[in-house]
Amino acid sequence: MASIVTRKAVTFINNQTPATITESTLDLDKCYNENEIVIEVHAAALNPVDFLLHEFSNPRLSTKNPKGYSRDYSGIIVRKGAKVAPIWDIGDHVNGMFSHVYGEQGTLTNYLILDPVKQSSISHIVQNSSAAIDVGKKVPDEIEDRSGTKRDDFVKNAAWPLVFGTAYSCLMEQGQVWDKDSRILVLGASTAVSNCLVQIAKNQLHVGTVVGICSSKSLTYNKEIGFDYTVAYDQGDGFIANLRELMKTPEFVGKKFDLICDSVGTSEFFPVIQEFLKPRNENSYYVTVSGNEKYDYKNPTLGNFVTISGPVRRFNPWRTFNYKGIIVSPNQAYMDLGNRMITLGRFAPRIDSVYKFEEFQEAIDRLRSNRAKGKVVITIKE
Ligand SMILES: NC(=O)c1ccc[n+]([C@@H]2O[C@H](COP(=O)([O-])OP(=O)(O)OC[C@H]3O[C@@H](n4cnc5c(N)ncnc54)[C@H](OP(=O)(O)O)[C@@H]3O)[C@@H](O)[C@H]2O)c1
């Protein structure tokens, strides 16, 4: 491989400038230090957090430097520093979540340079996972991708690290113990985060009952993925009334949830939470990955996120329920679990659509529609 290459990246400067492709020259033999690897990126996936970061980069407050887009990636290691651990070698196929806020690099680029110790959400991708031995509940291939198109390993493996890690944090970081009697309620069953959460909960943790709230159009889709029950938010008198009806059925009488996980942003449950969530002293939790309000992906505002109610709910000594806002951070544990579950046929990353690098704006528009079912992936190396 030639040492001098053209680096292409999707970047933005501030909220007055659109995301655009920028090009620069990169010397592959000189662009990394002794602790870093260089990854030739084959695919990357979008996440709504970039819409927020782009929207909030006020020209008066942010630097004039180009800022990278996206976090999920898959690709091949093409260079490594002398002090990089031997587990990472040139030619290895890897995927991961590159963590940054307004970083110079994002993952919508053809070359990503990182220190695998600091950016610890990295793993070797499972190749030809369909050939793996099935010792768990097999996730049907046909629901892996709504378009039915077979996706290559790079596309599949760019599609899960960030949302899988977020779902893992919701389930595993509160010290909750899961078994067949456990009950989880998911607000926003159709989101990419919830896709992962239900697969981990049902196929790996053997949680007895997972209920999902979604649009009436998505009820069947979410049942196919693994939710035991789905409840519509856009029918009848709304999701609380619809959930109350479900709670009257024999399976639910006298039972409450151990965990309510919000992946859309809602406050509607708080006034009635004791009807649905077990008492605090049973280590029940309300966790949110999206804050207090559903934000408009096309026009997010700071007020959607910066509230005093979150810290008050979490730290108030007289609180009646445990509350936590989840922010995914780099962690090897969820990468290992994701790969293990893919190998055993217990997890299939959900892909909504795949776009070419030059079509990045269409990909962004698709995710901004807030109708994606699974990840929007961009292929970088053709
Ligand atoms: N804290 C963190 O570290 C972290 C990490 C990842 C993501 N997030 C946040 O988590 C949220 C979900 O992200 P994502 O990428 O998983 O979402 P996504 O895949 O973009 O979610 C799209 C889905 O949301 C559903 N939806 C739209 N409006 C809804 C509503 N009012 N109520 C319930 N569902 C609705 C739609 O399905 P229906 O047909 O059911 O409407 C749609 O298919 C975002 O707010 C994102 O910023 C946070």
Automatic annotation (TrEMBL):
Belongs to the YIM1 family. It comes from Naumovozyma dairenensis (strain ATCC 10597 / BCRC 20456 / CBS 421 / NBRC 0211 / NRRL Y-12639) (Saccharomyces dairenensis). The lineage of its organism: Eukaryota, Fungi, Dikarya, Ascomycota, Saccharomycotina. It is found in: Lipid droplet. This is Enoyl reductase (ER) domain-containing protein. GO terms for molecular function: oxidoreductase activity. Keywords: Lipid droplet. It holds the Pfam family ADH_zinc_N_2. Residues 16-378 form the Enoyl reductase (ER) domain. SMART domains: PKS_ER. InterPro entries: ER, GroES-like_sf, NAD(P)-bd_dom_sf, YIM1/Zinc_Alcohol_DH_Fams. Its main location: other. One of its GO terms (cellular component) is lipid droplet. It comes from the Eukaryota.
